[in-house]
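pipeline stage [seq->struct] | target=Exocyst complex component 8 | organism=Polyodon spathula | residues=684
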Amino acid sequence: MTDTGNKLRKQLESANFDPKQYVKHLSQQSDGDRDLQEHRQKIQTLADETAQNLKKNVYKNYRQFIETAKEISYLESEMYQLSHILTEQKSIMETITQALLSTDKGEAAKEMQAAFPKETEEVKQRTLTTLLEKVEGCKNIMETPGRYLVYNGDLFEYDVDNMSQIQKVHAFLMNDCLLIATWLPNRRGAVRYKYNALYDLDSFAIVNVKDNAPMKDMFKILMFPDSRIFQAENSKIKKEWLEILDETKKNKVIKERHKKEEEPPHSPVRQDMPKNPFDEDEQVVCEEIVDLSMEWIQELPEDLDVCIAQRDFEGAVDLLDKLNEYLKDQPLTQPVKGLKVKVEERVRQLTEVLVFELSPDRSLRGGPKATRRAVSQLVRLGQSTKACELFLKNRAAAVQTAIRQLRIEGATLLYIHKLCNIFFTSLLETAKEFEMDFAGNTGCYSAFVVWSRSAMKMFVDAFSKQVFDSKESLSTAAECVKVAKEHCKQLSEIGLDLTFTLQSLLVKDVKAALQSYKEIIIEATKHRDSEEMWRKMNLMTPEALGKLKEEMRNCGISNFDQYTGDGCWVSLSYTIVAFTKQMMAFLEEGLKLYFPELHMVLLESLREIILVAVQHVDYSLRCEQDSEKKVFICHNASFLYETVLPVVEKRFEEGVGKPAKQLQDLRNGSRLIRVNPESTMSVV
């Protein structure tokens, strides 16, 4: 850069640069339009240099930009993990605090009950009676002996679907049930509320609802398949409700357990038959009692409800496995049947949730691994067939979506590369995930093979639409098919060979492409034959002659030098040379597209193309009167029969692995052109 340019750059980069003042000063000092044009050119040159330097800096620091972005991504992931850990620790601390508070409350309650046992229960019963007098339609609630009030208060009920407020209610928590009463708009005397619902403490689960402004201080009562959401006046009252509900449910379980332990076991001895005093061998058959009083069994249905609500599928299946292991060798008594009925209902609900997780309507991001959680739990529940069906449907929808979202590029080969990469990578990942998820279920593998064939059909539909329906050239179609074959071979690493399926689905389109291009070559050959003058080729320049020699060597004709003369002349007709190049190109593209099912199609196409050239040479020999031209035609015929056709037969046999018998018969059965020393012809 010149000194003037450096000075101008420093002036423009200065901190106190004023554009208006600079333009005003420049216009005053310039002599005319020419000076302004020169100054404009300097500024434009400076702008171009600045832009070029900026591009160089961007390219220079491009890798640093990528590494910085990766570091930011890693940092974001670590911050998310740290936030998750802090949230878990906060939850643990809150659980410990609640446990300590409940312990303190329990000890205080025991002391109060020890000091005033009768008075406390009587006061609670009187309070409940007084409150229930204000509720319309619940006179029979106090008929249950030992029932008393634990807690009560006003709540607001919200709709579960749209979170809109429904009504104001008053809840009465008793030692064995929960009563929900609605407010009466028109009070009648002492009656304030109307009976709405009564829930046994064993029939529902309590779930805390996270605060999400403006929806705050809420908790949910789950009575599968239904649920209700209530809102307390503030966080303190909500906390009291959650703690007292949990404590009351636990107290009920403990009380029932103690009651069962205190009851003496009853032997089911039949009394209708008189006992034979002389029958000393008679044995009394007693039904074996299964111990279902353990705390984890009593709370199992409720724990399953909570696990399903919190999407803890692994925890729910672990509980079911634990129960099945415990009841494996136990007799099927009536209490066990009742427990199994409750558990089977939860299993049905859990299965429905897992099925929904695998439905194609859910998000398809994350690849096959995203389905592993739901699939593994369905397999553990003994639903392997359903898990297999849903997994494959999910993956089919994912593959179809990926293909549909693929951007159609202008270049067909580029699009096919992307299409094959997406499809075969997805198929490979799906196969590996399937093998991992259903390792112990060999019966599901046949379903995967059937699914693979249907997925391949979907791929071929998209492939053919872009390659064959758009009338691409035969060379482009051959390259695209070659790419698809190479990707298909990658599946062999997992023992899945879909090459035959791919070929059988493509054979119709490939056959049509070969026949179409054959017709094009035949029409082009006939058009050149109609203008044939049977003259030697003059390529004018050595470069053009060298290029033609190289093309012929690429076609497999190694002795082409003997057909070149002095200067840039070639002792062959333009028609024969063009025909040779076009036919050899067709053969090479046909070998790329070759399937065993297309053997006769390719062979017959080559035979028809060669037959057109043979017939043209034969016709020209019979019709030509000039002896010199007849000698030249014989020379071209010799090149065609003795050089080109053997190369075609050899290349076909190398590419296919079988000899081209039809081409050999065509060459041997054609007329042999011989030229005698006196330049006269004999046609045999």
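stage status: PASS
auto-comment: The two ends are 83 Å apart (CA to CA). The first strand starts at residue 135 and ends at 136.
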